[in-house]
Amino acid sequence: MIKKTVKRHDKQIQRFNRLLHELKTPLTIMKGEISLTLKKKRSSRAYKNTLKSSLEEINRMSSIIEDIATLLNFRK
Amino acid sequence: MRILVVEDEKKLAGFIKRGLKEEGYAVDVAPDGEEGYYLATVNSNEYDLIILDIVIPKINGMVLCKKLREDKIITPILMLTGKDTVEDKVAGLDSGANDYLTKPFAFEELLARIRAILRKNSGKAVTRLAVGDLELDLLTHKVVRAGQEIVLTTKEYSLLKYLMRNAGNVVTRTMISEHVWDINFDSYTNVIDVFINYLRKKIDGNFKNKMIHTIRGRGYVLRNLKK
User: Fold this and answer.
1) pTM of the predicted protein model
2) Hey, which of B9, B118, B180, B186 has its CA 20 to 30 A from A68?
3) Is ipTM over 0.85?
4) Best interface-test mutation with A: which of B8, B11, B23, B84 has the largest number of A CBs within 10 A?
């Protein structure tokens, strides 16, 4: 019984770590795209594309955070 | 300088490619380990640097790195990953990588690390190339001849850098296309000759002592004939 609980606990921590790790991809994309865009003067289309892309990544991060919240609530 | 980026996340590969191209590097992207292995080995050691993500489909980056080293591919490898524990970094470097950068990284740091790796690989810590009275600053991209600044486009700059790194040696059109242009380059066009002409006008146009020479049937050489 204890073994089973420990195993389940380990699995949850693994999942939690994986989700935290997944947050790094959208962060890397936003950090990279924004700093590259700001490196020199760009066309208004280029700024628009960066903003659009950042919004997509923010949405991706929101859904990962929701998954993390679900996982935490489930553990309560 | 030609760089291979092995990265499955499209947007990440996209901005790395765009940013590196702006800096004058030629960039190819492989979306998984298998294609990365193929491109890195097909013309062995053709790339000047490989940027390799660890978590990629088909062949994991760490395994790929070991495989390349076993196959005697000595191209410097910069690993890119979200894993940031000491153990992960040690494992990455021990698998044969030259450097390790964790996500999320600053683009300027990626560029600085690439410059550092390429410097180390060229055997000497140079930030400036000079042939005769022609000087090229690798950090600011400023090109000066006899004290006069010469404004070059990104492609012209890359081409001149490649010629200056190989000063005194003949470089063939194939060598130029492999190091200055990316894989989508159509070698049947005369683009290289056109760019050599642009460079000639800017570098040699106002000077008696010509530096860029055509070696018929072989290629080009940049050399300083005046002692």
Assistant:
1) 0.72
2) B9
3) no
4) B11
